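Recall the central idea of this unit: under ordinary conditions, the amino acid sequence of a chain determines the structure it adopts. In this exercise we apply that idea directly, starting from the sequence alone.
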Amino acid sequence: MSSNRKPEKFLGVITKGSLGKGLQVRIRTHLSLERIQTGQFVAIECEGVRFFGLLTDISLEATTDSILLDPPDEDTSSLVREVLHGVFTFGDAHVDNRLALYEGEAAPRPVRSVPSHFTPVYIAEENDFDQVFGSENLAEGGTSFAIGKPLDMEIDICLDLEKFVERSNGIFGKSGTGKSVLTRLILAGLIRGNICSNLIFDMHNEYGEGSQAENKSGFMKGLKPLFGSRVMVWAVRDQRPGSNGHHAPARVATDGELIIGMNQIEVEDILLLRQELDLNQTAAESAYLLRDKLGENWISNLLKMDSDEVREIAERTGANVQSVSALKRKLEAIRRLPFVEESWKLTNLKDIVENLARGKHVIVQFGSSDSLLGYMLVANILTRLLHDEYRQKVEKYNRTRNVADKPRRVMITIEEAHKFLTPEVAGQTIFGTIAREMRKYFVTLLVVDQRPSSIDSEVMSQIGTRIVALINDERDIEAVFTGVSGSSGLKTVLSSLDSRQQALLLGHAAPMPVVLRTRPYDEAFYKQITAGMGAFSSSVSWEDLSEEEQEEKILEEEKDLYG
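Accordingly, the structure predicted from this sequence is:
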C-alpha cells in the first residue's frame, strides 16, 4: 500500500509482538520521548495493508544493563548522553493493534494478522482518522456524530449513533470530569439525528433549560431551548396542594406534572429502595407476603394499621411481626414524598410513554424533590411501565410484521446508575432486565456513573459503548473494562487522562479505542447542532409564538420526524 507520510510523523519500526499481546515499536523519531504520549493513534504501513492501533505504553530500554550501572551524571557532557541515546539506550512503544485496511477495500476491519519485523510506524494523520472514524453527517440525514478531536490534532472523531443505541451504553468518570456535559452532548446528537426517543431522568435539573457550567464560567443551554417542542419537560411535583412552603417558579414551562400513587408501587420498587429506606432483608421480603394478601393497595392499607392490626396481618401471612412493623415505619418516608398520593391513575405516566412512542423526547425533572429516594422511585416505576408497554408493542409487531406497528426505539438516561444496578438488586429490577435484554424490546440504557465498580459485573459486560473520563480508583478502573479484550494497555491510557475534557472512547459504536478531547458544549455547538432544522431555532421561545404559529410549527416538525 503506497504511502506519502510526512517524515515528522515517523515513530519507529516494529521489533516484535503478537496478535494477542500487541506490538513493540523501537522509537526512531527525531522527537524527544517527552513529546510522545500514550493514547496516540498510529498507522502501520505494510505491503497491501495498513494497520491502525493505539499507543498504550512507553518504556525506557538499554542494550545492556552495564550501561545503566554507571549512568552519566548531571555534569557530564550532553554529547555523551547523545552518543548513548539511540545506540545503547532507547525508547520502546507498545501499540495495541486493532484494525486493518486492505488495499482495494473501503473500510477497515478487525485485525487477524500482524505486520512484519521492521515495518515503519507513524503517528496518524488526518486521512487515517477519516478512514477509521469518518466525518459528521447528521445534517445530511446520516448517523455519524462528532464527539471530539484527537489530543494533538484538529479533526473530528465521530461516533456511529445508530450503533450506539443498538445496545446499552455507559458514561463513566469521577466527580467533576464532565460526565453531565458529555451526556448532554450525546443526547443532543441523538435528538438532532432523530435516532431514537430519549427518556431522561434529570436528577439535578441540568438537561431541560440548562445549568451553570462546571467551571462556573457561564450558562450551558439544556435540550429544551435547542430543540423546542421536540423535547418535553415533565416536573415531579415538589409541593403538595395547599402547602405553605415556597418554591421558586420553574424557568421553563413544563408539559406536565408527575404524580405517583402508592397503588402503583410494586414490591420490586421497595427492594430497589432497601438501602435508602434502611430495610433489612427480612423486612423487604415481608412485602411480598403483604402484597399477596392485601392486593394493589397494600402500602396504603398497611400504613393505616395500628399495632394490633399489624400483629394480626403478620400472623395471617406468616410474616415476622417485627419485620412488618419495621416495613410500615420505613414506608412512611415514601408517603411523605410530595409527589406521592394514596391512589392515582396511570394517566400521566402513560402520557409520557405515548409521547416517547410518537417520537418526542421526555425529560423528567425533580426540582427541589431531588432526594435519591424519590429519584429512584419515580425512575423505576416509569421505566417498568415503559418496558411493559413496549413489550406489548414488540409482540404485536412480531405478530403482524407491519412496518406501521414497529416501535420507535427509546434510550433511557439514568444518573447514579449504580444505585439501580448493584449485584444485590440487578437481577430483580427493570434496569437490570433492560441491560441484559440489550434491545430485544427496543429499549436501551445510557448509564451515567462515577462508581462503576458498584454495578453488577454481568450488567457491565453488556455495556456496548463506553465513554470514560478520568477514574482513579482501581476497582472502578477494573469494572470499566469488564468484558473488554486487551484492557491492560487501555488501563494505562485511562490513568493518563486529564481531569477535564478528555475521555477514552471504546466499544460497539467506535471502530477502535481512541483518546479524545471532548467537543465543547458552547455557542458554536448550539449553532452547528440546530443548523438547518428549520422548525425550531434556539433563538425563538415557544411561548413567544401565537397559537397559529405553534400549530404550524408542530405540523412542520411532525413532517420532519415522520416524513
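The chain has three domains: 7-133, 160-204+346-526, 263-335.
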